[in-house]
Design brief:
Helix content: 40-55%
Structural class: alpha+beta
Shape: elongated
Low-confidence stretches: none
Distance between the termini: 28 Å
Largest sheet: 3 strands, antiparallel
Radius of gyration: 17 Å
Mean pLDDT: 88
């Protein structure tokens, strides 16, 4: 499991919640590291809203406010944000790990 820290926007006739903090769970399959210690995303099974807002409201609360379709659209947007930087973020984290290990 990977996690993506992003935002959530809910815009209905009655409610506007604009860009609050949100965390999404990303269920992805990664390849093995290659000779340059890089890996790629082979497949993303799902991206699911885990919590949102300062009170860490659940996905169910978001669905009750905006509906399943609107939340699915937000999850798709989170997927696009995550996939755009996932490989480089993973490579940077691995490099940091290797530097920490070398420092010890």
């Amino acid at each position: 499991m990977d996690y993506h820290r992003g935002s959530l926007t809910i815009d209905t006739d009655d409610v506007l919640i604009d860009g609050v903090d949100a965390e999404y769970v990303v269920d992805a399959v990664w390849s093995r590291r290659n000779s340059r210690n890089l890996r790629s995303v082979d497949h993303v099974h799902s991206v699911t809203l885990m919590w949102w807002g300062k009170s860490r409201y659940s996905r169910a609360v978001a669905v009750s406010i905006a509906g399943e379709t609107a939340i699915k659209a937000e999850e798709q947007r989170a997927y696009e944000e995550w996939i755009a930087t996932a490989v480089m973020d993973d490579a940077n984290a691995y490099a940091d790990y290797r530097m920490d290990m070398a420092a010890e």
